Amino acid sequence: MLKFVLNRLLMALPTIALVSVTVFTLIRFIPGDPAALMLGDMAEPEQIAAMRSELGLDKSLPQQFLIWTANVVQGDFGRSIVNDEPVLPLVASRFLVSAEIVVVAVLLASLIAVPAGVIAAWRQNSLTDLALVGTATILLSIPTFWLGLLLLLFFGLKLGWLPVLGYVSIGSNVTGGLVYLVLPIMTLVIHEMGVLIRMARASTLEVLRLDYITHARAKGLSESAVLWRHAFKNAFGPTWTVIGLILGNLLGGIAVIETVFTIPGLGRLMVDSIFARDYPVIQGCLLFVSLSYVLVNLVVDLLYPLFDPRVVAE
């Protein structure tokens, strides 16, 4: 087990290094001069040159990358051009808002969709199976922004049950904060259920065709015991991998949902920073999202042996 963990940790290090290089390089392709943007249109060339020197922009790209990497390792992501705040606390606070929505949504979607997919596989080609597969296909085909707008229209405007716009921090008001998060979480749950139902069904069907399932049935075990005690654990491994991918993707791609529901999360911060050309914040957001994706999938890999002990022997 220790060898498996060390191998996964060592495999993550080159990925993190490649992510850092990619983020640094992409930011350098954005048109515009950060120094000129910080000083404004009335700045003199001498002032811009002095600011570029202060920011280290007059050095070569390899030197800039080494300086930036050393600062990031120490927790210094720079300062925002727009509001002169440290980037790391700003990005971290917005990331927590996004994580509240994404983690709860993925958890709820998994609790609903995985059993539904298992039942669909157990009742293959039945009316239940066709209904669940058809529902999953429909959910997959609905864009999240359109689904969010429909939920806003129905639950917010028509019924008036939930607020349409705004955000309240759960830390300041638990009940009020949860009310504002219901619709964005519901949007993600409905959409991601389609992926998880299909994946859980496919992996369960594959396991149900194996010889040990036939042997378990031959011993006289009930269908529920065969399904949940023997088939589910081995079938859940591939679904667990997909859950990790969904979690990582949503942490980086929740900007649309946050824009629809006006939630001040990491995706919304990234979009606003792109329009404002706030390069340090854009760089910090990209690095934070990329590292989060790598770490989430690393955790998924490390926990995978709990569902398939054969992995450790590889």
Automatic annotation (TrEMBL):
How does the protein associate with the membrane?
A: Multi-pass membrane protein
Got a GO cellular component term for this one?
Answer: plasma membrane
Q: Any stretches that span the bilayer, and where are they?
A: 9-30, 95-118, 130-157, 177-197, 239-261, 281-304
Does Transmembrane helix appear among the keywords? yes
* Entries under PROSITE patterns matching the protein: ABC_TM1
Where is this protein primarily located? membrane
Keywords, alphabetical: Cell membrane, Membrane, Plasmid, Transmembrane, Transmembrane helix, Transport
Look up the domain of life of the source.
Answer: Bacteria
Pfam families from the entry? Answer: BPD_transp_1, BPD_transp_1_N
Keyword Translocase part of the UniProt annotation: no
Q: Where is the ABC transmembrane type-1 domain?
A: 95-304
Q: What GO biological process terms does the UniProt entry carry, in alphabetical order?
A: transmembrane transport
Signal sequence residues? none
User: Where found, per UniProt?
Assistant: Cell membrane
CDD domains recorded: TM_PBP2
- Family under the similarity heading: Belongs to the binding-protein-dependent transport system permease family.
List the protein's name: ABC transporter permease
